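Students often ask why inverse folding is considered easier than folding. One informal answer: many sequences map to the same fold, so there is more than one right answer. In these notes we will look at a single instance of the problem. The structure comes first.
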């Protein structure tokens, strides 16, 4: 009987020790914090800024004075007095067609004019002496007028055999050569005055109330890293019924490095500044619910984040405007949002430039 008692006491001690050991382990585990460690992210503060109201558009550069030169008549080219890419002055002769027939006709017309003038002067003298009737003087006057008109006609034909620069500018690629026989309307070359360039573009008609001559704008092209300054010159008086767009024209203040026909992107300052809440572009995340930011809040344990859907606006110089959903002074995660979730604990990184995701 005493042996059973010893065994029972021994078992009680063994199981008691095991129970105490397990209780201590489970108590330790229960007191352990299994929450994930804080996530290191860069934090930015929403700030209020004044941004100009910009209207974006695309257009095409053109010369204020630029033409495609073509012949008004047919004939053989006997002389080309300029080269491709040459600077010319207004009135300079560029090309001459064969005008031998017209030159001969002019000599005949000049001779006829001399004779008609002499006959008119003789008849004018005789009429004062009342030696001839008035009708003969009238015929002499008519013959003189006809001779003058005939010579003027020949001169006009000769002018059509010559291509003259209508204004000073730069000659483009000459598409014909000496000896070619060309038809009326054949393109010869282009002439562009590169000292004064314009840009034609269009915007939706709904912007018409904000547009007026004199508005400043910035022009950018793929051919240059420079920003070119331009001024709105004219707004069309009618809307295109096909596109519902309004045509506009601007004048460039400087045109070095630009050519007619280049594609250009325009930023028009409507001179209507507005106050906006802005953030770094990297602070905005995109989800099924819409544009989202992770707002930083603080409790007794430290910093944590909560997602918030906002309405985003335009971007400028690496910052994005928040139209609604965020107040100035609120802090948001600006880098590292891919690791965040609702209620995630964070450590704010003070130097975003050194932060690595």
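Output (designed amino acids):
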């Amino acid at each position: 009987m005493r042996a059973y008692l010893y065994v029972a006491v021994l078992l009680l001690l063994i199981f008691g020790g095991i129970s105490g050991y397990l209780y201590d382990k489970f108590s330790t585990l229960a007191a352990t914090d299994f929450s994930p460690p804080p996530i290191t992210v860069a934090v930015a503060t929403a700030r209020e800024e004044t941004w100009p109201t910009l209207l974006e558009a695309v257009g095409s550069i053109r010369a204020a004075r630029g033409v495609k030169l073509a012949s008004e008549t047919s004939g053989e080219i006997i002389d080309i007095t300029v080269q491709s890419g040459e600077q010319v002055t207004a009135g300079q002769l560029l090309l001459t067609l064969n005008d031998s027939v017209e030159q001969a006709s002019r000599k005949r017309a000049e001779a006829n004019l001399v004779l008609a003038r002499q006959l008119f002067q003789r008849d004018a003298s005789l009429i004062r002496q009342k030696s001839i009737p008035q009708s003969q003087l009238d015929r002499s006057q008519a013959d003189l007028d006809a001779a003058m008109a005939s010579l003027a006609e020949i001169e006009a034909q000769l002018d059509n055999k010559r291509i003259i620069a209508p204004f000073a500018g730069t000659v483009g690629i000459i598409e014909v050569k000496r000896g070619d026989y060309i038809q009326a309307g054949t393109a010869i070359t282009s002439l562009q005055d590169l000292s004064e360039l314009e840009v034609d573009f269009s915007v939706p008609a709904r912007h018409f109330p904000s547009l007026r001559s004199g508005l400043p704008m910035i022009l950018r092209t793929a051919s240059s890293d420079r920003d070119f300054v331009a001024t709105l010159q004219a707004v069309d008086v009618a809307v295109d019924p096909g596109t519902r767009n309004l045509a506009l024209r601007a004048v460039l203040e400087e045109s070095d490095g630009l050519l007619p026909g280049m594609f250009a992107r325009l930023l028009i300052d409507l001179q209507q500044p507005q106050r906006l809440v802005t953030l770094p572009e990297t602070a905005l995340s995109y989800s099924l619910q819409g544009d989202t930011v992770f707002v930083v809040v603080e409790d007794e344990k430290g910093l944590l984040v909560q997602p918030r859907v906002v309405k985003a606006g335009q971007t400028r110089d690496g910052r994005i405007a928040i139209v609604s959903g965020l107040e100035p002074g609120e802090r948001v995660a600006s880098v590292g949002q891919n690791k965040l979730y609702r209620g995630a604990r964070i450590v704010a990184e003070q130097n975003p430039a050194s932060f690595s995701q």
